[in-house]
Amino acid sequence: MTRIDHPESLKRLAVQLRRLPGIGPRGAERIALWLLGGKDRTRSSELASAMLQAAESVRPCPECGFLTDTAQCAICADETRASGPLCVVEEATDILPLERTGAFRGRYHALGGRLAPLDHVGPEDLRIPGLLNRCRTTPAPSEVILALSADVEGEATAHYLAELLHAEFPRLPITRIAQGLPAGGGLESADELTLSRALSGRTQMN
Ligand SMILES: [Zn+2]
After folding, report:
1. Separation of 57 CA from ligand 1 center, angstroms?
2. How far is CA 25 from CA 13, 33, 35, 43, 116, in A?
3. pTM assigned to the model
4. Euclidean distance between the first and the last CA atom of the chain, given in angstroms as a whole number
């Protein structure tokens, strides 16, 4: 006897949805059925068009690496932040949690990762030339704050950057936040108070 299942196209949709982070087989099936429901059945076309539009227009800001759908991100475009401290983070997704603390009004620079020799991630894979260029440009940052994760790779990256920056800009203060950020882009799990304390309790590295 044939085992009755959903139609092929519905199963294909569920397979795609299962690829989304945090979605299991049951969840994928529920979302697929929801997408096909509704009175005028526009849920799937609205979702599809929002996805295509975002995929086409959202890019890393050429200056800092934060996400933007214009030529320059909202932080770099904000004139009131000019020439202040520059906060270096690993990923663009680390910026908003720091921004939400309200404890920092400078600019950011997302490296796009951290040094991880075991995963073959070297300095050439990170946005380090861009960081050096920003320190060379007038007005130069008043301070570089390293807000990297608290694990071995984050530490190694912080020390590498501190040495590199100090060699070229010996008078530029280089600081690190008091506690490193939780590793693996888990910044949402760090509450705002912890983050703002980490920022205000930063220590000088050079
Ligand atoms: Zn930017």
Report:
1. 15
2. 11, 12, 15, 20, 33
3. 0.81
4. 75
Backbone angles phi, psi at 159, to 5 degrees: -70, -40
Neighbouring C-alpha atoms within 13 Å toward the C-beta of 190:
27
Cβ atoms of 90 and 113 within 8 Å: the answer is yes
> Of how many residues is the chain composed?
206
Q: Ligand 1 centre from 92 Cα, in Å?
A: 10
* Residues, CB within 5 angstroms of ligand 1 (ion): 61, 63-64, 66, 73, 76
Per residue in 64-112, pLDDT (tens digit) is 999 999 999 999 999 888 678 999 999 999 999 888 888 888 999 999 9
The Cα-based distances of 31 to 19, 42, 43 in angstroms read 12, 14, 11
203-204: strand order across its sheet: 107-110, 86-89, 144-146, 174-176, 203-204
For 162, the token pair is 């501190």
Nearest 10 degrees: Cα torsion 114, 117, 119, 124: 60
- Cα separation, 52 vs 66, in Å, equals 20
What does the block give as tokens for 21? 């982070």
